[in-house]
Amino acid sequence: MPSKYEGFGLSAVEMLALRKPAIASNVGGLKDIINNDCGKLIDGFDADEYVETYFKLLEPEVYKQKSQGALLTSKKFANTKRFSANFMNIYMEALKCQN
Q1: Looking at residues 36-46, what average pLDDT do you find?
Q2: Is the pTM of this model over 0.90?
Q3: Cβ 72 vs Cβ 35: under 8 Å
Q4: Domain membership flag for residue 40
């Protein structure tokens, strides 16, 4: 999921809910959703790093571990109240960074 900007990252949450590990750019909302438990964030658009990460995730044990992490991570965003609380926490953290 290479991207220059990503507001929330709904497609990432949907992917995780399907137990699919995510490889994404370290931008916007993606960096608040994707972590080492469910995939990998990549700085920039290094095609070689994307390919290397893709093949690493295809290793059976790595895929199994990241798939389980993907489902658990997606559940943090599946509930509307929980989603709102998570979004508010992200928003408050962003405000702190500006002060």
Answers
A1: 92
A2: no
A3: no
A4: yes
